[in-house]
Amino acid sequence: MADVITVAVTGDLVLDEPDPGYWLAGIAPALRKADFTIGHLEVPHTDSAFEVEGDVPAPGAPLENLAALAEAGFGMLSLAGNHIADCGAQGIADTTAELDRLGILHAGAGKDLAQASRHAVARIGGQSIALLSYNCVGPELSWAGEDRAGCAWLPLTAEEDGPVTPLFDFTGITPETRAILQAGIAAARADADHVIVALHKGRVHTPAFVADYEREVARAAIDCGADTVISHHAHIVRGIEFHRERPIFHGLGNGCVVTSALSPDQDHPARKEWARRRKELFGFEPDPAYRLAPFHPEAINAFIGQLVLRKGRPPTAAIVPVHVEAPGRPVLATAQRGREIADYLESITQAAGLPPITIAADGKVQAAA
Q1: How many degrees, rounded to 5, is the angle at CA 110 between CA 58 and CA 52?
Q2: Do residues 134 and 200 make contact, with C-beta atoms less than 8 angstroms apart?
Q3: In this structure, what CATH number is given to the domain that contains residue 120?
């Protein structure tokens, strides 16, 4: 029985393109080296052409591309995000059925809220890890209900009224938020030695920024018994903080996102308009060389999070620096590039108003003295 296990964690995964193994190959050695790897699946994988109306829908990715995730080392995926329901109930059913066939555990989406809210448990080397996955940004049409397929979600307060969308300025959590976390984490804790909570949160395409509600909901998860909080959605990395000695990754950025759905040169009118509009909303111009990952220029600074888990002790945190090369392929960074990425992460942590951190040459992350 292993006294210590390592867990790699990544941000958003979108594999729309052919040859998904190629796009993952640049980071797969680090994923396989860990005892276990967790990522976030951003879009449904399905043959269905159905599109939910009311938001900018992501296209369903090829069902067969999921096998590349298993081959790259992923053992568990969070699913609660703003696009997982874009192909409706069939898209979720196809995705989860294929993950089950491949032996990839998952949490955060299902045929109804009860199924979407269940934790997944992995057993590695005599220890066990539970994962809970929650969408914090909407849109409401993606949320599961008692009789509706979708994702697990957390209610938040916002400055606006009306149906929740990812563009809202959220302001805080509610008593219901804490109650959902309390119940979910308690159930997970009964089944596992370690509990990880995945949150889909934050303002997209914006460097450094961590909203007050993000800190509040992440800290609430720790207060309710989680050992680690991992986050995604922004498509750019965010800072790291420690609460009660437990790590909070406020934004893991892109794990591997290669897609033509964000290109302005496409036939789908809603996606074409969003490609234009997001540049105006967030004030950035993508590098044209990054045609499959047209994100903020600073999104080339990426990393894989790493947790070292010991029973009865808070996890320790580290990063494995990743450089995103054109047209969007993540690769393990060279030593020099890795130091640049570590320095970037230290600087954006402080710029976001989080307590300063230090990242050692071996990637270990600690609160600054």
Answers
A1: 30
A2: yes
A3: 3.60.21.10
